[in-house]
Specification:
elongated; 7 helices; 137 residues
């Protein structure tokens, strides 16, 4: 019985196993994929807070990042960044964090202590001009 297993995993504070069961059963129970994702993310966020889980979990990071991207694309930048703050600073959400922060820097500066790290490698692309050698006349 899946429900009993979920209750056992919740009581054992086994965050990764609970999330994987919820992720596999949640899509079928909801009509809309976005509503299913919202329901899953809300449950995961509450469970993360209740269990004080702060390790990296690939499934949790992927679902949360996807949901934050949907929020950001619909203009809900503060909500999107709040969800991203539940994640440790990982590579999967770095571009989205940077995009959200730079789309509303004044608003995000009030919310965050500092700007998120730049997710790309910087490269100097300046051309060093060297004039052609002078031909003797």
């Amino acid at each position: 019985d899946v429900r009993s297993a979920v209750i056992c995993y919740i009581c054992a504070k086994n965050f990764p196993k609970t999330v994987s069961i919820w992720a596999s059963t949640n899509v079928a129970s909801q009509g809309s994929p976005k509503l299913a994702l919202q329901d899953l993310v809300e449950k995961m966020a509450v469970l993360q807070d209740a269990t004080k889980f702060n390790q990296a979990d690939a499934l949790f990071n992927a679902k949360l990042t996807k949901y934050a991207e949907i929020l950001a694309n619909s203009g809900r930048l503060t909500a999107a960044m709040r969800y991203l703050c539940l994640l440790s600073d990982d590579n999967s959400s770095a571009i989205l964090r940077d995009r959200i922060f730079n789309s509303a820097p004044a608003q995000m500066s009030q919310m965050l202590r500092s700007a998120p790290r730049f997710p790309f490698q910087t490269t100097d692309v300046r051309i060093m001009y060297q004039p052609p050698p002078q031909q003797p006349a």
